[in-house]
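Hey, resending since the last one bounced:
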Amino acid sequence: MPASEKLGAKIPLQLSFVDEQGRKVTLAELITEPTIIAPVYYHCPNVCSFLQGGLADALPGVKQIPGKDYRVLSISFDDQETPEQANQARAIYYQAMNQQFPPDAWHFLTGDKAAIDALMGAAGYRFMRQGEDFLHPVAVFIVTKDGTISRYLYGTHFLPMDLTLGLLEAAQGKVSPAIRKVAQFCFSFDPQSGRYVFNLFRVSATVILLTAGALLTFLILTGRKKSRESQSKS
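The structure tokens again:
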């Protein structure tokens, strides 16, 4: 079940939720900079845990400063879940990051059905209860500080580069669906260093081909123009 992407739409920042400490908060209080929102439910037996684990694995590699340049919100779409469950989830993923992530940079929220439906509807995130579990997309989305949806990322494994570039675009107020394709074209993973490196050969080859194509087009057009001029003089 994929999300119905609503790039450029705004989520309702006036909505109230409850954080992992049991405090009532509005989205406007938390989304003061680009924010990664992870729709989950905390007792999920598989993909929600993998998704949040994927975030915990990738976030330490993000270039921006957590809590200052960006924030992360896990938001349960199960209106029966409690702040205690949210706090247990927080403990798990902060432990996975060896407590090295700022305490105010990743919040775990619960809420009532009205707030959940309003937020998920605004984001095009459809879910369906099946017994105690849910059928739902496996995705996060990134919003700007005014709540504009700028990026969706799918799956349970995230590249720090994808998150970094997505947050950078959100900080600039940009909405672009092609960030991962461009990034994967321009960068390659070096298994020896464990880092992404600029793919100079691929990018250079593309530039050369485009330049050669433009030059060929220019020569053809110039040749045709000279030919027409010669014919008119004769």
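The chain has a mean pLDDT of 86.

Sorry for the duplicate.
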